[in-house]
Amino acid sequence: MNTKTILVIIAIVVSIGILFELQGRFVTGSPNISSTSGISLSTNPDPLQPGPATFLIEVKDKNGKPVDDAKVSYDLNMTTMNMGPQQGDATPQGNGRYSAVGRMTMRGPWRVSAKVTMPDGSVENRDFTVDVP
Ligand SMILES: [Cu+2]
């Protein structure tokens, strides 16, 4: 094997290494790109007050289209203490909206954790912090 052959082999090995590196970056970057669907929360009453509350979780795909056949479960609790379990499946309302009911048993910061299983089986978790003034 002469020097020229060895240099060519080294060049090929380095090129393949660079290609794998680039591909690795592309693959690890793609989940972030594909998880840009929109999950948003609104409350009734707004602002919240002590007592019963309705949470409306709105699910849109990455094109901004409402997603009706998702499964949405929720977990409601205070951010600073455990106020007891309030969780379940949100009820589909159509137009990408899912409703959940809860009771705000104390003033202060609460968290609504939504787990959305999209029709393609992918799961997205989103936490919302809401305040009961
Ligand atoms: Cu509390």
UniProtKB/TrEMBL annotation:
Location of the YtkA-like domain = 41-113
Among Gene3D superfamilies, the record links this protein to: Immunoglobulins
- Transmembrane residue ranges: 6-22
| Organism taxonomic ancestry | Bacteria, Candidatus Roizmaniibacteriota
Q: What is this protein called?
A: YtkA-like domain-containing protein
Annotated stretches, region: Disordered: 79-101
- Keyword list, A-Z: Membrane, Transmembrane, Transmembrane helix
Q: By its UniProt entry, which InterPro entries does this protein fall under?
A: Ig-like_fold, Invasin/intimin_cell_adhesion, YtkA-like_dom
Q: Specify residue ranges for compositional bias: Polar residues.
A: 79-96
Which organism does this sequence originate in?
A: Candidatus Roizmanbacteria bacterium CG_4_10_14_0_8_um_filter_39_9
Pfam family, any one: YtkA
